[in-house]
Every structure is written in C-alpha cells, then in structure tokens.
Design brief:
Length: 345
C-alpha cells in the first residue's frame, strides 16, 4: 500500500507539472503575438496594439476568440483526415519538446523533493531531436492534404529547410557533448552551476545552434515556407479557424521552447552566477524566474531579427546550411576534440 501511495503521488506531481508547463507555454505563445507587434511598432515608430484593453494587452484574447468563431472550411478536394491531422501533429510535437527541460531546481514539499522536470531521461537531447524531426510531418501533411500547389511548394520548402538545418544543429551540439559527456539536460545544467556557462567554451557552437533554431522555427530571415510574396500564405493557406490557429501557435511555442533550450544548454539554465540560496523552495522559484528571463530575452532577439534582416532567397538559405554551417560545425568539433586531447596531456 505504501508503494502504491508513492506511485499515486508521483503521478499527481507529473500531471500538475504537465498542466502548468502546457499552460505557461500557451500563455507565452499567445502573448508573444502581442510582444511581436509591440517590438515591430517600436522599431517602425508606431504604437502597435492599443485598443483591446490597456496597452492592447487583451489583443491576444480577441485574436483567439476570432479564430474560435471563424467558420471551419475543408477544401472539397482535400484529404480531410490528413488535413485535420497536420495542425494537430504540429501542435503536439511543439508541446512534447518541453518534457525534458529542467525548469528549475527541485521544490521541497513535506520533506519530499519534487523535480520541476517532467522526465529526466539520459538521452534528453536525442529526445528533442526526435520530436522536432516529427514536426516536419505536420508541415508536409498540411501542405499535401490541402491539394493546393502553393501549399505543397511551401511544405516541400519547409521540410527541406528543417531537414537541412537539423544536420548543422546536431553537429554543433556534438562538440558541446564532448565537453559535458552527457545527453541529459539536467546534468548539463548542473555542470554549469559549478563553473562558467557553456557559451564561453562553445561560442561558435552557440552561434551555429542559434542560426539553425531560426530556420527550425521558420523565423525570418528563414521563413521561406511562408514567403507571402512568392507562395501567397504558405503551407497553411487553405486553413481556417483553430486549425490555422494551431499552426500559428505551434510556431510561437517552438520559438519559446527553442529559447528555453538555448538558455539551458549554453547559458546555465536556471543557474544565476555567484548567487547561492540556502532555502530550496526560494532557490527553485528564483531559478525558474531566471530561466524564464533568459528565455524571454531570446524570444525578443528572435523578434528583433525578424524586423531587422530581410528574407533570404531559397538558394541562399540552402547554401548557408550546406556550404557554411555544416563545415563550420565540423571544424568546431575538430577544434574541440584537439583542445580536449591537449588538456588531458
């Protein structure tokens, strides 16, 4: 009976954590639309959203209500099952990626440590790459099932882009793994609590990872699958109502999770330099806020780049990935291996 009670406690803890993380991810995605409009307005000397609520803070709620109230449209010649499955898969894979991120140090409740991480698997980085690679199917399903040539072209572009930049992203992390010796995100964060952040050891690896994250999230200047001047509206052109909302939300959730992963791998995660708090619950709260602040900063950089750098041509996009980023990532691996061998002598 005692073991059964512990199992139920474990299950309740994980369910509560899952609900909290999903709610926070959706909330951040929702208000990222408001933040992006405000950042764009500031950079273009405009006001931005200012009608729905004070400072336009209710604008995301108004947009969500509009999507809910829109008519559900299925193109007559579409594959209806795959047409519906595409946005669901895109949203599901976007949310699943957060399962292995350590959001803070454990809370202590009634003498029991409650880890603020859904699953501490020893292959956390491989899990992230596996889930992210499944997101390609959501894009391809949506573009192909729409039976629209522009949607199909955009989906092919998006899939080719994501597959190409996943290679450089994976290679950039191999050098980091050579230093850390672990695929567990929790272990990588704990190692950074006893020394310098990984970005100081792997600056080139971080730059490559960040550029690839822009391409993986279909963000400017790599949003070739949504190039309005070439492909009308992109791979989700035929979508309406919340099916369209799922695709748009998935993009912002991916941006949030990518920012959290960058903060975890390269910027110490929930650690704050030279700050040590004795109370574990206070440390967990402060650490969670620190990780959230780092994540919000990267989200701002994503938005800053969108309204600063023009979109690449598609041949430039592929040339950058295959002819520049992959060779640089391989060179970074060789240099890292040589330095590790030299230090061991």
């Amino acid at each position: 009976m005692h073991l059964l009670a512990i199992d139920w406690m474990f299950l309740v803890e994980k369910l509560v954590l899952i609900v909290v993380i999903i709610s926070v991810s959706l909330g951040v995605a929702m208000y990222s639309t408001w933040g992006e409009r405000k950042v764009a307005a500031y950079m273009q000397d405009r006001i931005g959203p200012n009608r729905a609520g004070p400072l336009g803070l209710l604008q995301p709620l108004a947009d969500g209500m509009k999507l809910f109230m829109k008519e559900e449209i299925f193109p007559a010649s579409s594959n209806k099952f795959l047409f519906l499955l595409g946005p669901c898969l895109a949203m599901l894979t976007a949310m699943m990626t957060s399962a292995v991120i350590p959001w803070s140090s454990p809370l202590k409740v009634s003498g029991h440590d409650v880890p603020l991480q859904i699953a501490d698997v020893n292959i956390g980085i491989l899990y992230i790459f596996g889930v992210v690679s499944m997101g390609v199917y959501g894009i391809m399903m949506g573009g192909w099932a729409s039976n629209n040539k522009f949607s199909l072209l955009a989906a092919i572009r998006g899939a080719s882009q994501i597959i190409s930049y996943e290679l450089a992203m994976g290679l950039s992390l191999i050098a980091l793994l050579m230093l850390t010796g672990s695929l567990s995100l929790k272990t990588i964060v704990e190692q950074q609590s006893h020394g310098l952040w990984n970005v100081l050891y792997q600056p080139l690896g971080f730059i490559i990872f960040f550029i690839c994250a822009l391409a993986e999230c279909n963000r400017t200047p790599f949003d070739l699958s949504e190039a309005e001047n070439e492909l009308n509206f992109g791979y989700h052109q035929e979508y309406s109502s919340m099916k369209l909302g799922f695709y748009l939300f998935a993009e912002y959730v991916n941006m949030f999770i990518s920012s959290a992963i960058m903060a975890t791998l390269f910027f110490g995660g929930y650690n704050i330099p030279y700050v040590h708090i004795a109370d574990p619950n206070v440390a967990a709260i402060v650490g969670g806020l620190a990780l959230f602040a780092k994540t919000v900063f990267f989200i701002f950089v994503f938005m800053w780049i969108r309204w600063t750098i023009p979109r690449f041509r598609y041949d430039q996009l592929m040339r950058l990935g295959w002819n520049a980023l992959i060779p640089l990532a391989l060179l970074n691996m060789v240099i890292t291996g040589a330095v590790i061998l030299w230090l061991k002598k």
